[in-house]
Write a structure and sequence with these properties.
The chain is an alpha+beta fold and 125 residues long. Helix content is 30%, strand content 38%. It contains 3 helices and 6 strands; from the N terminus they run H-E-E-E-H-E-E-H-E. This is Deazaflavin-dependent oxidoreductase (Nitroreductase family).
Length: 125
């Protein structure tokens, strides 16, 4: 079970608007800047992002078919703004990991409760 479409809609309309002003500076959060596959329009999606040795890892709480995931995969990259810094990311890769191993312990348990097993790996340029 990943988060429902109702939760996704609520987050788009309410939560994302409230968190956008500070999501790019708080640890564990980031703003993903990407472009629409068809429209070319710029989107800014607040996410939980976690650093890896060579980039970032994002838990796909709405699954791998979310529009922003498909946009990043189609473009081959995006930008991540986190902790006040902007990073260009490339080589997006979908990863399925039922152990949720790379995630921090508290996050790992929460993701287990909601059934998240898919992640997007992004390499820093």
């Amino acid at each position: 079970m990943v988060l429902s479409e109702r939760v996704a809609r609520f987050n788009r309309v309410v939560t994302n608007r409230v968190t956008k002003p500070f999501v790019g500076v708080l640890p564990g959060f980031g703003l993903l800047v990407h472009h629409g596959r068809r429209s070319g329009r710029e989107f800014r999606t607040p996410l939980n992002v976690f650093r890896t040795d060579d980039g970032f890892l994002v838990a796909l709480t709405y699954g791998p078919d979310a529009d922003w995931v498909r946009n990043v995969l189609a473009a081959g990259g995006a930008e991540v703004i986190t902790r006040g810094r902007k990073y260009r990311v490339r080589e997006p890769e979908l990863v399925h990991d039922e152990t949720r191993g790379p995630m921090p312990p508290g996050v790992r348990q929460f993701l287990g409760l909601v059934g998240v097993t898919d992640f997007l790996m992004l390499k820093r340029e």
